[in-house]
Amino acid sequence: METGKRIIATTARWLFILCLPVTLLTASIGLAVNSQWLYEYGFNKYDVRQTTGLADSELRKAASGLISYFNSGEDFIDLTVIKDGQPFPLFNEREIAHLKDVKRLIRLDYQVMLGTGIYVLLYAVTSLCWLAEECRRRLAQAAIASSGLTLGLILLIGLAAVLDFQGFFLWFHHVSFANDLWLLDPSRDYLIMLFPEGFWYDATIFLALLIVVLAVLAAGVAGGYLLITRTKQHFNASD
Predict the structure, then answer these.
(1) End-to-end CA distance of the chain
(2) E strands along 117-212, which residues?
(3) Nearest to residue 149, comparing CAs of 24, 26, 29, 11?
(4) Which residues lie below 8 Å from residue 230, measured CB to CB, with a gap of 6+?
(5) Domain boundaries, the chain
(6) What residue ranges of the chain have pLDDT lower than 70?
(7) Distance (Å, rounded) from C-alpha 81 to C-alpha 89?
(8) Could you tell me the CA-to-CA distances from 87 to 43, 64, 69, 80, 83 in Å, in that order?
(9) Are 67 and 36 in contact (CB under 8 A)?
């Protein structure tokens, strides 16, 4: 019986250690996808106003329209902007089809985030509220181990991106999409004009830094808890 409990506890702890990095990654992607600031940062840095001929107000409209689409129930995006005083649909059929594929990936990200996040939360709440002090310490230790795993993975991904971002970018698209709709023409396709390769490099760095911050915070809170409990134990033993 005791052996069975230990196996269950060990399995639950390892699932937590593995799920936390996935939760941090998918949550960070979700934040980036919904960050109007990140979109507009890229527009300004890469002078997208000049490339597209769109006013800043129309670029902001495009950013908010994309965010709304990714979170809507619509299959296809329908986004009209004003250029040279005339309204026109921003994306052509190929871009619209590709954005549907992108939206499918974002929905998958949300689902994975929800699934792993619920498990991480349940494990943490159970350990903190209903189990013994030893379980709380094991939770803190697991959080530190998971944060270390997260930082290691981000380091590997970051090195791959920095050393050969174009290769990394192509690999990601080949793995993520079953078609070549992502191969767009920067001379006429507005989607790639809005988001050139440099933007994706910056977005990758932004994601990596965000995940690092979250992992360090998790490790800091867990480490602080362990330090406090050990200090209390030391003083109690001295008494």
Answers:
(1) 37
(2) none
(3) 24
(4) none
(5) 2-238
(6) 1-2, 130-132, 232-239
(7) 6
(8) 20, 17, 19, 6, 6
(9) yes
Cα-to-chain-centroid distance, residue 237: 45
- The values of phi and psi at residue 82, to 5°, are -105, 130
* Cβ atoms within 10 Å of 220's Cβ, excluding its own: 13
202 is written with which tokens? 């910056």
Contact 217, 28 (CB under 8 A): no
CA distances to 29, 31, 89, 102, 110 from 211, rounded to whole Å, are 9, 11, 36, 21, 16
H/E stretch holding 131:
none
- Count other Cβ atoms within 10 Å, centred on residue 182: 19
10-44 tens-digit pLDDT: 899 999 999 999 999 999 999 999 999 999 999 99
Q: pTM (2 decimals)?
A: 0.90
Assigned token pair, 113: 């985030």
